[in-house]
Amino acid sequence: MTTLEKLELITKAADDRLAKDIVALDVAEMTPLAEYFLIMSANNERQLDAVVSEIVDICKKENIDIKNVEGKAGGRWTLIDLHDIIVHVFHHSERSHYNLENIWKEAPIFNINEWIGE
Q1: Three-state SS for 108?
Q2: One pLDDT digit (tens) per residue for the chain, 118 residues
Q3: Which of 14, 22, 30, 109 is most buried, judging by how many CB atoms fall within 10 Å of its CB?
Q4: Are 2 and 82 in contact (CB under 8 A)?
């Protein structure tokens, strides 16, 4: 599975669990950490858990290696490291505090609109 196929699969899984404001940043030229950061919000801790669980489940089902999942117990920001994609799932109140989009503002936004429902 290519990186873009994984990105599409994960984006759709997050959208299915009602993740909000999903943004993909192309960080391939900026850091060796990953090719993409996928950033999203959840309205509450229960929804955050559902989004994270759906992403982890779909990765396991599709044999996508998960390097690490951090922050799951805290319920405010969970990071899922998939080697070439790092997924950040924020509680809506935490996202603006950390403001990753501003920190990585030089990274081009990758258009994922066709993968997200209206």
Answers
A1: coil
A2: 899 999 999 999 999 999 999 999 999 999 998 999 999 999 998 999 999 999 999 999 999 999 999 986 566 899 999 999 999 999 988 888 888 888 999 999 999 999 998 6
A3: 14
A4: no
| Cβ–Cβ under 8 Å, residues 38 and 86 | yes
> In one letter, which amino acid is 13?
A
Pair of tokens at residue 85: 């994609």
3-state SS, residue 30: coil
Compute the distance between CA of residue 37 and CA of residue 58 in angstroms, rounded to an integer.
Answer: 18
Residue pair 86/33 in contact by the 8 Å Cβ criterion: yes
